[in-house]
Amino acid sequence: MLARSIADAVGRTPLVRLPNLSPDGYEIHLKLEGHNPTGSIKDRVAKYLIESAERQGLLHEGSRILEPTSGNTGIALAALCAPRGYKLTCVMPENTSEERRQILELFGVDIVLSPANEGSNGSVRVAREMAAADSDLYMPFQYGNQANPQAHYETTGPEILADLPDVTAFVAGLGTGGTVTGVGKRLKAHDPDIKVYAAEPQYGDLVYGLRNLDEGYVPEVLDQSVLDSRIKVDSLKALRATRALAAEEGIFAGVSTGASLAVAIRVCGRLPKGSKVVAISPDGGWKYLSTGAYAGGNVEDIAESLADTLWA
């Protein structure tokens, strides 16, 4: 595939069946978004955020962009901003992985750290304060920008339908809400009977970049009417599923993938035999090696040691 620029290399990621982890009588398929240029599903969102702003005349060479992120969106924005001559500042929780900080620094991004105990909500708060104090900053704001779910409605959803037109159900982690909203709407436009499930962390669980809606902030882009159910998953189940994915299917993914996979396995019990479930793998595991999530040892002890680590 010949791409004219890094932006043109975004999307068209593999959809891979999981023969060993699918329950008997069901098929679980994983959409491997780690195959995007900077290694995550956020490449799709960043492309739409930037190109939408450009069409509206909001950006020009030398523009200063500000965005709250737990890492992946910032990295995706950085890759697109660099060749365009935009200056990027990312606000991110201080407990994000070291790999993410180093990648952002490589792209020349200015990093502002928000309190770890506030998770991604803290990054949103700090970024909003900075934007209010400096009118020259442009904040795309993935949490409230309709370009976010639009990216998934126009790209991720159609890719899934092209590869698996008889999909029965869809599972994605609940972060900004863009993926589950955009893909969910596109799948239901194809077939209203397709079920859409959001993997949601347990209350107070600062893990894998997902959010519990009961903790006070509901992203503006999330359309809850698309959801058939929000299903809770804890960090231990997510980590176990992530490790099983590597051991049994040969797929090295981030822990947020484990969260979606754990929910996908669970919802099979709610669906008729023969159902085909698609789950999102937002990224690979490469950006998390420094956290110790993939080290040897007792998985319960590792999960406990990672209790204060933010994932996405």
From TrEMBL:
Belongs to the cysteine synthase/cystathionine beta-synthase family. Pfam families: PALP (PF00291). GO terms for molecular function: cysteine synthase activity. Keywords: Amino-acid biosynthesis, Cysteine biosynthesis, Pyridoxal phosphate, Transferase. NCBIfam families: cysKM. GO terms for biological process: cysteine biosynthetic process from serine. InterPro entries: Cys_synth, Cys_Synth/Cystath_Beta-Synth, P-phosphate_BS, TrpB-like_PALP, TrpB-like_PALP_sf. Coiled coil: none annotated. Residues 7-283 form the Tryptophan synthase beta chain-like PALP domain. The keyword Transport does not apply. Its cofactor is pyridoxal 5'-phosphate. This is Cysteine synthase. It comes from the Bacteria. PROSITE patterns: CYS_SYNTHASE.
